[in-house]
Amino acid sequence: MKKIILDTDILTDCDDAGAMAMLHAFANLGEIEILGIIVNGFDNNKKHSAVVSAINYYFNRPDIPIGITKRIKGEIPSKDSIYSKEIFEEYKHDGLLDSERPNAVDTYEKILSEQEDNSVTIVSIGFLTNLADLLKTENGKTLVAQKVKLISIMGGRYPSGGEYNFNFDGTAKDTIAFINNCPKSVPMIFTGFEFGIGVITGKQYKQAPNSPMRRAYELAYDSINVGRPSWDQIALLYGARGDCFNGKKMFELKYGINSIADDGRNKWISDNTSIHAYLKPAIPETEIANIIEELMIAEPVFE
Q1: Helix or strand or coil: residue 155?
Q2: What is the tens place of the pLDDT at every residue in 264-299?
Q3: Which residues contact 121 (CB under 8 A, 6 or more apart)?
């Protein structure tokens, strides 16, 4: 069983909420153990970590550790979450505001220190700020090298270009810091903008029961009616299942080095000896969308 930490901004786009639904579906199937959820970005409503809590409560897992960046506004991208106020008011959660939660770095270090060596998968579906901060500490960098076997990252554009998570509002320096300083023994697998844009999901929530995820898809870009690209879900799908599942190949891996410019734009340098890669679909994107959406709308399991 894979052990996963999810690092999410869960700010304005709803694919984070869709990925969280998948995370719990994988746990219900016995494929993964959810170790914790770490939140990046700054919600001007100060409530986006409560969206995480509400989804955890919906899936009957209220005790999953939640950590959040302690960077202040101006040190990290800040926005008004499209859905955090409504979800805070309409759904059960632990009642904590963002400022009341544990520090992201402390939460990472506590979780990682309790795991076996080379056993943890980190899935990053937001800014790389928390991971960059983790590597700034001696203990954090040691723990990543010792405990982490894979980091699946939604970020960049391949083979080259600019993308939101890598270069929005000053995050380029954190992208560079993390990718350049990550221990060389840890594979990084990247999901690019160009892949997720063609994998549209979310419209099945129209027939699904009321939930925090369904509400996020209603409020964000009318995604419940028009659908939304599945950038974050693809990164999680790979993190949980790898390139093959039940004998079927889902992804092609293009190995190489991710070179990041000062403005956060990336350029892929092919190298078949590298342990890093970016993903391309090995099956039709519509088939990947169907796999993702089935997981997204899976209902909670209650004992």
Answers
A1: coil
A2: 999 999 999 999 999 999 999 999 999 999 999 999
A3: 2, 3, 4, 5, 148, 149, 150, 151, 152, 239, 240
Cα–Cα distance measured from residue 130 to residue 178, given in angstroms and rounded to the nearest whole number: 9
User: For residue 261, which of 157, 150, 170, 175 has the smallest C-alpha distance?
Assistant: 175
**Three-class SS state of 152:** strand
Q: Which pLDDT score is estimated for 303?
A: 58
| Tokens coding 5 | 């930490």
User: What radius of gyration do the chain's Cα atoms show?
Assistant: 18
Measure the CA–CA gap between 215 and 268, rounded to whole angstroms: 37
* Contact (Cβ atoms closer than 8 angstroms) between residue 143 and residue 182: no
Q: How confident is the model at residue 243 (pLDDT cuts 50, 70, 90)?
A: very high
Distances in Å between the Cα of 187 and the Cα atoms of 36, 115, 183, 220, 239 are 20, 18, 9, 33, 11
Q: How far apart are CA 274 and CA 259, in angstroms?
A: 13
Mean pLDDT, range 197-226, rounded to an integer:
97
118 sits in the region (left: phi over 0; alpha: psi -120 to 50; else beta) called left
The domain over range 2-296 is classified in CATH as 3.30.70.360: no
Q: Which amino acid is at 43?
A: D
Kind of pairing, strands 244-245 and 200-201?
unpaired
Backbone angles phi, psi at 221, to 5 degrees: 60, 25
- Give CA–CA dist 127/165, Å, rounded: 5
Q: How far apart are CA 20 and CA 40, in angstroms?
A: 15
Contact call for residues 264 and 178 (beta carbons, < 8 A): no
- Axis crossing angle, helix 212-219 with helix 48-58, rounded to the nearest 10: 140
